[in-house]
Amino acid sequence: MQTETKMQVSYKNYWYIACQSHELKANQALQRIVLDEWIALFRDEEGKPVAFQDRCPHRNFKLSQGHVKDGLLQCPYHGWVFDKNAQVVAIPSESKNFKPLKSRCAKRFDVLEQDDFIYVRLESHPDIQSGPFRMPHYREPGYRTQRLFNVFKNNVTNCAENYVDVPHTVFVHDKIFRVSRDEKVDATVTRKNGTVKVDYRNETDNMGWFSFFLNPKKEKIIHIDYFHVPNITSVEYIFSPGKEFYITSHSTPVNDQLTHVYTDLTYRFGIFTPFAGPIVRYQGQSVIDQDIEVLDTQMEVIHKYGERFSNSTADIVHVLIESLRNAIAKGQNPAELGEQQHDFEFWI
């Protein structure tokens, strides 16, 4: 009796942001790289996004350098024309003698548009069927969002771990984000269904320059961090009724050493919401600029000495994130890993 072989899971089975919606204009092709795969993007006659491998099957030219007209993409080398289904629909050198052949086609990737992003998926898997992560409260009434894009010379794992790493904030972001007070923080971390969730307790007003505004009464805040496989971090702060702040980062792997990061800073500050945009953007980008420097330097050290880490108590969060990403690297479905929960404490 033959045993059915289960299809291995891959990083290619997940959705990644290729670009922002406004970057993909009508009648224009665009190149992006995801997981070292070259991708040519364009919009069809209905304005919907299309994604091909950035390779013309005729003589191996970049389709992203081609021309788009009426939703059709033409290779600039010999003029082969492709429709949204990646089929060749015209070859100038064959003129009226052209006959469509299914064997003459480009490689097509899954693509969709959501929350003003263009997402691509390189390969499908029967057990990985969820769509792209929804950006929290994006375009909801009462909320505003500042959207940032940054490039990190590091991999997705190290980037994601940095975004939910609380202890580093008092050193890298001193005064901007937090101040070292030697205050105890209790936390519970849970790994379940491909997500790592961290509930922090005992935090009040250690929020940097704007603590007086965000939490003037110094009441305990709600602070929850999430990591969703394979590349999403979402940080939630609820300071008081009507004051909320969400930091959501989607890390798109260009390759093993380069990551494009799209960050949404979504907030609700009551009557101050319409006016907070410039400050939120400046503050957020200032923090990210510091993290870029740290993560770029970290990768320099890794190149020199290899990726070997020693852990403190608070690094249980990183260990669980790595367990999910390592499962994918081994071909396993991370959602099938057993549930774990740990209480821990640290001081900042």
Automatic annotation (TrEMBL):
Molecular function via GO: 2 iron, 2 sulfur cluster binding; dioxygenase activity; metal ion binding
Coiled-coil regions listed: none
Highest taxon above the source species: Bacteria
InterPro entries: Cholesterol_7-desaturase (IPR050584), Rieske_2Fe-2S (IPR017941), Rieske_2Fe-2S_sf (IPR036922), VanA_C_cat (IPR044043)
Domain Rieske: 16-120
Claim: Metal-binding is one of the keywords in the record: yes
Protein name: Aromatic ring-hydroxylating dioxygenase subunit alpha
Gene source species: bacterium (Candidatus Blackallbacteria) CG17_big_fil_post_rev_8_21_14_2_50_48_46
